[in-house]
Amino acid sequence: MDKIKIKVNGNEIEVSPGKTVLQVLKDMGIHVPVLCHYEPLMPQGSCRLCVVEDRGVLKTACTTPVEPNMDIKTDTPNVINSRKLVLQLLFSERNHYCMYCEVTGECELQDLGYEFGLDHFEFPTYERRFPVDNSHEFIMMDHNRCVLCRRCVRACSEVAGHFVLGEMERGIDTMIIADMDVPLGNSSCTSCGLCAQVCPTGAIIDKRSSYLGREVQSEIIYANCDMCPVGCGMEIYKKKGANFIVKIYGDWNSDVSRGLLCKTGRYLSLYDAKERVVGIKLKDEFGYRRLHEDNLINIFKSKLDNAIAYVDGSLFNEEIEMIKEIFKDKVYSLYPNESPIPTNIKLSELDDKEFYVVINADLNREYGAVGSIVKRNVIGKKAKLMVIDKEFNSLAKIADYVFNIKDLNLALDILKKQKEVIIIYKDINEEEKSTLNSLNNAKFLYLPKETNSIGLQKYGIKHEKAKAENVFVFGKNLEGIKDLPLQNSFVVVFTPYEDEILRRADVIVGTTNGFEREGTFYNLEGKILKKEKVLRPDFDVLDLKSFLSNVLGKTEKVS
Amino acid sequence: MGKIKVASIWCEGCSGCHMSFLDMDERLVELINKGLEINATPITDLKIPDEETDIGIIEGAVATDHHEEEVKMMRERCKIIVALGDCAVFGGIPTMRNYFSKEELLERGYITTESTVDGKIPTSKEIGKHLPKTKAVNEVIKVDLYIPGCPPSADAIYYVLKEVLEGRIPKLEGELLKYE
């Protein structure tokens, strides 16, 4: 399209049509204060701090598209005074007194106050008392701090797809509400926490990160979440000089999740309270006694004849490779990991489709980022949704069609008539697989059970029950040990968590977990993602990766 | 250069701002050498400012009828009124009580406090009576200069006094302008 000519502060420039005035000014390096505007969300123009003058008229830069013959001025007294007045009104409408607010120091409203040299309130304040909603497990809403920018409402709907937050009443009586004005803790909120991430003030805060430190006191580490096979991009704030994580944000630049995170990645990964296996323990006639790592290497090496290894999908690629190097082809998976129908769609292509089918997965409770993508298209863009399940699925209430998996054939009649259907599924049997395979208008996204199931597939590790004199088990989920033929075998288990089943083991080795370990894994679309080491372990635990390279005699440096 | 007379009072505040004033240390001597004359202040323990005072500094919010009288007297007697610290500028921490009734406030303060045994709400006529609402100073009198901060830094106070002594209108910016 032809470029159009506009004037900015007296200089004539050429810009491409379709851009907003704010984008043009930003490209030119002209600073425009904003509050309700947030790059990944649709502009709304409600705070009116970004006003600029066009031929004598004040316009919001964030929502005004450029048009020919515009004469934009960004620093006239009219513009500056209008912005100052708006800021004064924002500060006086509710309680924006910094001394009793959690976010002071990284508040966007406070920053604007400093930018405009606001040194007192021109209007009386503190006239009204608004409620504080502390009903939610992870998030607190303090309406006294709210500037009604609706970033949370837009993030909850446009990005996270949950459509929980909304607003009621008008003008200064406007309140941000959850569902039909119920406490957030009782609402349909899935605890993805995106609202707290985008809130510019202290109106929505993450309870756990409160008072742990400011962003300037943190180092930011970018990594992928390894709590499930989606592998969302994380922005991890680790307190400088300390061994704890302040908070986790979704990484807007991640090509996997583009800002999304779910309850599991943002909160549960930090709330882990399971009992850990500490040290290395060898069973003898008196019980278990502690071993040194050097002794473990000797025992490990002495038991390698007639040995097999079992692994689960919590292992990283580097660990799997070394286990394969040690045990050759005698490595088996504790759980089945084949994809019944291989995935042939990327997460980045999942948006803007017309028909989604979700089979056997409640995406409000698991694979949250995939759930968000489906929900924002179904609720926000009116795509069709079919839910097929054998039990209750909370997605059913927004679905156009709901089928029991037994009636898959009936569902198929509808699916055949569609132009294209996106099938997101897990746990299907052979018969269901062949039924679904008969569709020629379908794209499939398989939801593996374990984080690195796809990695196990790629390394050719199959689920089998083999027998051997010495059995080595590596992994987090030990449920599968129960089904193994372990009679008279010498059993060595490398695991982070205590478990009843560990009493069967002859050697128990506590390993690093969560943010204490690093490595790569394949996510559900087959992308290699990296988990970074963020924390130093608080316990006497062994890093599996460095132990295995010691066994192999590799001189790998491990921090 | 003639003397510039300074008076200060301390309303509903914690004295932190006056501490910050003293925290100017040797720069106080510099200001005094430049003509600053410290008149009635909590530091000199004189309560009533001279009638022809140049700068009146007010710490703390206006919470009682006594505070109201005091700040009004300051306005009458001082040419320039400086609101010092968050309580004087915005109302500050003391405005938290605006969320409760006067009765609830006194009950909590004098009777139901965990460490209080047989508490009694004081009734002496010499004690100021709470206003319906704790207010920032500029809701009661006209204020000329504001130094927010809790407390404001000694640097900010020094900068403002120096600018006034040298006949300029100070404008707090950057590190000197803090709300916390």
List the defining traits of the structure above:
A: 559 residues, 13 helices, 21% helix, B: 180 residues, alpha/beta, Rossmann fold, 5-stranded parallel sheet, two-stranded antiparallel ribbon, 7 strands, 20% strand, oxidoreductase activity (chain B), ubiquinone (chain B), NADH_UbQ_OxRdtase-like_20kDa (chain B)
The radius of gyration of chain A is 28 Å
Name the biggest interface.
A-B, 17 and 28 residues
Strand order of the largest sheet of chain B: 2-1-3-5-7
**CATH superfamily (homologous) name of chain B:** NADH:ubiquinone oxidoreductase-like, 20kDa subunit
Rg of chain B, Å, rounded: 17 Å
N-to-C CA distance of chain B: 36 Å
SSE ordering of chain B: EHHEEEHEHHEEH
Mean pLDDT of chain A: 93
Helix content of chain A: 10-25%
Describe the oligomeric state of these chains in a short phrase. Answer: heterodimer
Number of domains of chain B: 1
**What characteristic shape of chain A results from the CA principal axes?**
globular
Q: How is the biggest beta sheet of chain A arranged?
A: 7 strands, mixed
What's the tally of helices of chain A? Answer: 13
Q: Could you name the ranges of chain B where pLDDT drops below 50 across 5 or more consecutive residues?
A: none
Q: What's the helical proportion of residues of chain B? A: 25-40%
Biggest beta sheet attributes of chain B? 5 strands, parallel
How many β strands of chain B by DSSP? 7
GO molecular function, one term (chain B): oxidoreductase activity
Pfam family, one (chain B): Oxidored_q6
Keywords (chain B): Oxidoreductase, Ubiquinone
Protein name (chain B): NADH ubiquinone oxidoreductase 20 kDa subunit
What does this structure look like?
Chain B: It comes from Dictyoglomus turgidum (strain DSM 6724 / Z-1310). The complex is a heterodimer of chains A (559) and B (180). Helices cover 21% and strands 22% of the residues of chain A. Chain A has 559 residues and is α/β, with parallel strands linked by helices. In chain A, helix 8 (317-327) links the parallel strand 16 and strand 17 (331-333). In chain A, helix 8 (317-327) runs parallel beside helix 13 (544-551). The radius of gyration of chain A is 28 Å and the shape is globular. The mean pLDDT of chain A is 93. With 180 residues, chain B is an alpha/beta fold. Chain B has one domain: NADH:ubiquinone oxidoreductase-like, 20kDa subunit (Rossmann fold), CATH 3.40.50.700. Helices cover 31% and strands 20% of the residues of chain B. Chain B has helices at 16-22, 26-33, 65-77, 85-90, 102-110, 154-165; strands at residues 4-10, 36-38, 53-59, 62-64, 78-84, 130-135, 145-147. Chain B has a five-stranded parallel β-sheet, with helices on both faces. A two-stranded antiparallel ribbon of chain B has the order 4-6. In chain B, 42% of the residues are buried.
